[in-house]
Amino acid sequence: MNNPVLPHSLSHPDVKIDDLSKVEQLKRDSRGLRGSLSAELAEPTSAFSEPMTQLLKFHGMYQQDNRDDRKRGADGKMQKSHSLMIRGRIPGGRLTAEQYLKLDELAGLYGQGSLRLTTRQSIQYHGVLKSDSKELLKGIRDVVLSTIAACGDVVRNVTQALNPTKDPELALIDAIADRISSHFEPQSGAYAEVWLDGEPVEFEEKLEPIYGAQYLPRKFKIGVTIAGNNTLDLFTNDMGIAATLKNGTIDGYYFYAGGGLGKTHRNADTYPRLASPLGWVPEKALIAVSEAIITTQRDFGDRKDRKHARLKYLIEEQGVDWFRSEVERRSGYTFELREEPVWKNPEYLGWQEALDGTLSLGLHILAGRIKDFDGKPIRSAIREVVAQYRPDIQITADQDLILTGISKEHQEAIEAHFEGQGISLSPKGSLYHRALACPALPTCGLAITEAERFLPSVLDTLQKPLDELGLPAPSIRMTGCPNGCARPYSAEIGLVGRSLGMYALYLGGSIEGTRLASEITDSLKAEHLEEAGRMLFSAWKQERIHADEAFGDFAHRKGTQALQELLSPLLKAPVRAE
Fold first, then answer.
1. Burial tier of 577 (Cβ tally within 10 Å: 0-12, 13-18, 19+)
2. What GO molecular function terms would the record report (predicted)?
């Protein structure tokens, strides 16, 4: 099968980096992600230069501007309030008690007293001053963690399935997630030089044998699981790996490729997409096939238009068959086309008994924000429990926290501790336990409107008709822009920011994470949310084919046109043509 001629990719013989995006030119000239970061870090300024903000991403941070804190300068113009968002590299979201306590301590010192759990099983610090960034990264290093490649055009934090019951089969993928994370970590010494006072080393392209001097066209997300367990939203990743078992050991892997949820409003060339199945390969093929998938994207991905640079566009436009053949050619392995697993998304919130006789406690953290709120000191309460009982910890892809290895004799005391701080351990029953949101305003530079700060109001608003109708809570995810960080496009209900007070509404994703939602309207006003919810939930109750039909399944079955007609009294128009 002939390879396509793609003039926007490195595979084209006549490609010139100067004709591609500015970020591609910056990567080429960065000397292995160094640029002028060290020099600018030493300057007594509050911000890095714009070019260096692109390189900062590879080191695990974004430079941000808190729009709420802007002040007018002497020239009468509004001055930006710069700070950094710094994100950890935590494969599978797994932490020891010691690591968690150190991350909590650093939040108090440098992160405005807040830890934020991410949808990629990591943590973020917001509001970090440039002058504090180096000490924060050194502190993270002290507990054998880092922030390298938590952002940027590389393999980002590797996610994995949850294991609240300490299932030994699920535990097998701990080593797989760690192996993948380590294998695809950038080899440049820039991170150690800039942040950890390492010795300067001259960059050579051969030091990046997988990425090369240009790294990847865009971010690359990987998830790892046991076939059938989708507690990580596997299909939203660029590459999904699902292990199969034989006699209690891993004998091979299903591979999936081309997932990703970001899009751009009014740009039909961008869209969310779930990963496509490539097939099954034996266990020994893990690294070879993973490298082949990543290097195919490296060589053929779009390097001219960053909005069109994810692997999903290459696969959608060139075809799964072409992509599968190219991966087989590069890896030396042939995919076996097996029957697909049946996917489930098991519950993890609340208390569960593990197979070793200990307990796990799944804590719901609204929008992943761990801080001491008035009347609800979540950060302090968790810190005190972790310090006293020393559980292991896993961050979830739904922005929650699981404490594992808890002795049964401590259950009552832990419950009393949390309840005494106003923190409910009830695992089910409301939208709050099924909700995700991105930070959005005021710090995210891409945010169009509110998400995290507006989420509690949205949940209160939509919970009313659910309670009135006696219905269970569907999953709901909310973002302040179309980039999809909180995965709204695969939720039963997705709200995507369009403008201040206006959201696109997506309905019909599946609980199992195997189906995208459909866009019903791009112009739902926030003030109409309660009435829209009442219309939709009433129809669900009246028309569901059985009492257990999930809202997402109902919405998918009913169809986009029927749902638009149902909501038409609230909408100026259905979805506008892109």
1. exposed
2. 4 iron, 4 sulfur cluster binding; heme binding; metal ion binding; sulfite reductase (ferredoxin) activity; sulfite reductase (NADPH) activity
Phi, psi of 117 (to 5 degrees): -80, 140
Contacts of 220 (CB under 8 A, 6+ apart): 153, 154, 155, 156, 238, 239, 294, 297, 311
Domain presence at residue 406:
yes
Which candidate, 343, 331, 355, 305, places its Cα nearest to that of 225?
343
Position 11 in a domain: no
Local confidence pLDDT in tens for the 578 residues of the chain? 678 878 888 887 778 888 899 999 999 999 999 999 999 999 999 999 999 999 999 999 999 999 888 887 777 777 899 999 999 999 999 999 999 999 999 999 999 999 999 999 999 999 999 999 999 999 999 999 999 999 999 999 999 999 999 999 999 999 999 999 999 999 999 999 999 988 676 656 567 999 998 999 999 999 999 999 999 999 999 999 999 999 999 999 999 999 999 999 989 999 999 999 999 999 999 999 999 999 999 999 999 999 999 999 999 999 999 999 999 999 999 999 999 999 999 999 999 999 999 999 999 999 999 999 999 999 999 999 999 999 999 999 999 999 999 999 999 999 999 999 999 887 556 899 989 999 999 999 899 999 999 999 999 999 999 999 999 999 999 999 999 999 999 999 999 999 999 999 999 999 999 999 999 999 999 999 999 999 999 999 999 999 999 999 999 999 999 999 999 999 865 444 44
Q: Which residues are annotated as catalytic?
A: 87, 156, 219, 221, 438, 444, 481, 485
Q: What is the CATH number of the domain that holds 408?
A: 3.90.480.10
Q: Is 401 helix (H, G, I), strand (E, B) or coil?
A: strand
Are residues 130 and 193 both part of a single domain?
A: yes
According to DSSP, the residues that pair with 351 across neighbouring strands are 361
How is residue 306 annotated by DSSP?
G
Q: Does residue 124 sit within a domain?
A: yes
Please tell me whether residues 376 and 484 are part of one structural domain.
no
Can the peptide bond before residue 442 be classed as cis, meaning omega within 30 degrees of 0?
yes
